[in-house]
Write a structure and sequence with these properties.
There is one protein chain. Helix content is 21%, strand content 29%. α1 crosses α6 and α2 crosses α6. It has 2 domains: 193 residues, FAD/NAD(P)-binding domain; 132 residues, D-Amino Acid Oxidase, Chain A, domain 2, CATH 3.30.9.10. The two termini are 23 Å apart. The chain contains 6 helices and 21 strands. The structure holds flavin-adenine dinucleotide. Flavin-adenine dinucleotide binds next to α1, β15, β19 and α6.
């Protein structure tokens, strides 16, 4: 039915998040049939696996991942846990943060979740008493204080994978799905030489392999950038009005987000790179963007002028016209795509897992 070119593993750099030492089986499974095949082992695919196994405990669920665990956006994320979707409130995506916290507690996943709150910041309309007053194409000030939190994205991803495996989901890395073919009573998922029969298939490939679901054109695939700094001590952060390193994002342009990082550092992100502009973080265009973000941060406030950048990385995101996620039934109860969070997918992908499980009827 749908096919896709197989090469999707790219050099997007190494995120700052320490990688837990879990191992996963590599290659196609031997016995080629299952109840649910999930394509993509990011937050969405793994949340789908856990929701399906929660409602249908003995079903055979196989997650096929083209790269190693963390190949896509999830482990490259900033890990800011946000309410609603990037496009605002949307049916099915209510109470994302509470749902996220309950789900992690129920699954026994320790992902370093902290309810920190979150600042919306902008160059106009700021609070007169805004703790932040940074010079970045105008003066950035806090405009709203929202619910929000942070996680360690690597712990979250591996925690989801580990929880799914303990419920007998089979996770297979280095398996690239090139075709999804609908037959009369099942779906065939195939790679270059091997295939798998499934009663239903969930496509959780984010902005990649959109041909598999036939929804290319609905989403704009692009890449966004992040960097991590060395230690910014509490006194310097305090001088900049950012003592707690509360996560923030701008609501105007140029876009910028930030949060606390590892070892008292910070993580910042900005920029969109569209298809055709560059593919890898080694590309000159991307290097120039990283340089520009670094210069912006260093000159935002004197307390940041000496920061050292320790990590630079990028990751894929899929932007939708209304910035709301796409949960699309491609074939009733047989093939569903979920993704397209427009850069706002940590908590939302967990919610999507529950919505997809209901649509598949598993
Ligand atoms: C730099 C960056 C910072 C971000 N920061 C935040 C943030 O702070 N807060 C927030 O809410 N969101 C953030 N996001 C967005 C968030 O990370 C994503 O919305 C979320 O991780 C999407 O998860 P996913 O599982 O849908 O996709 P992914 O994690 O991209 O997973 C898709 C998987 O599918 C696999 N795949 C693709 N094609 C195939 C195929 N043919 N066969 C087999 N496997 C395939 C890929 O290898 C990949 O592992 C950020 C994203 C980036 C890139």
């Amino acid at each position: 039915m749908f096919s896709n070119p197989p090469e999707i593993t790219k050099n997007w750099g190494t995120p700052v998040w320490p990688i837990p030492s879990f191992r996963y089986k590599s290659g196609w499974p031997e016995n080629g049939s299952c109840d649910i095949a999930i394509i993509g082992a990011g937050f969405t695919g793994l949340a789908c696996a856990l929701h399906v196994l929660g409602s249908s405990p003995g079903s055979r669920v196989i997650v096929l991942e083209s790269g190693s665990m963390g190949n896509g956006a999830s482990m490259r994320s900033g890990g800011i846990v946000l309410e609603h979707t990037a496009g605002g409130p949307h049916p099915g995506f209510e109470n994302c943060i509470d749902y996220f916290e309950d789900f992690m507690n129920n699954q026994g996943i320790n992902c370093g979740f902290k309810r920190t709150g979150c600042f919306e910041v902008a160059r106009t309309g700021g609070e007169p008493s805004s703790p932040i007053s940074w010079n970045d194409s105008g003066i950035l000030r806090v405009t709203k204080r929202l619910q929000g939190g942070i996680v360690d994205p690597a712990q979250l991803l591996h925690g989801l994978a580990n929880a799914a495996q303990s419920k007998k989901a089979e996770i297979r890395t280095n398996v690239t799905v090139a075709r999804v073919d609908l037959k009369e009573d099942h779906v065939v998922v195939s790679g270059m030489q091997k295939s798998l029969n499934a009663s239903a298939v969930i496509i959780a490939t984010n902005s990649m392999s959109l041909n598999l679901s036939g929804i290319e054109g609905t989403l704009t695939p692009c890449m966004t950038l992040a960097l991590a700094t060395g230690r910014i001590n509490r006194a310097d952060a305090g001088r900049a009005g950012w003592e707690e390193k509360t996560p923030f994002y701008t609501t105007d342009f140029p876009y910028l987000w930030g949060r606390e990082g590892i070892n008292e550092g910070a993580v910042f992100g900005s920029g969109l790179v569209f298809e055709g502009e560059a593919e890898f973080i080694s590309d000159r265009y991307v290097q120039e963007l990283f340089q520009a973000i670094e210069s912006r941060i260093k000159s935002m406030h004197p307390a940041f002028s000496g920061i050292q950048v320790t990590h630079r990385w990028a990751g894929p995101i899929a932007i939708t016209p209304d910035m709301k996620p796409v949960i699309k039934v491609i074939e009733d109860r047989k093939i569903v795509y979920a993704g397209g969070y427009s850069g706002h997918g940590v908590a939302q992908s967990i919610k999507a897992g529950g919505l997809v499980q209901k649509l598949i009827g598993a």
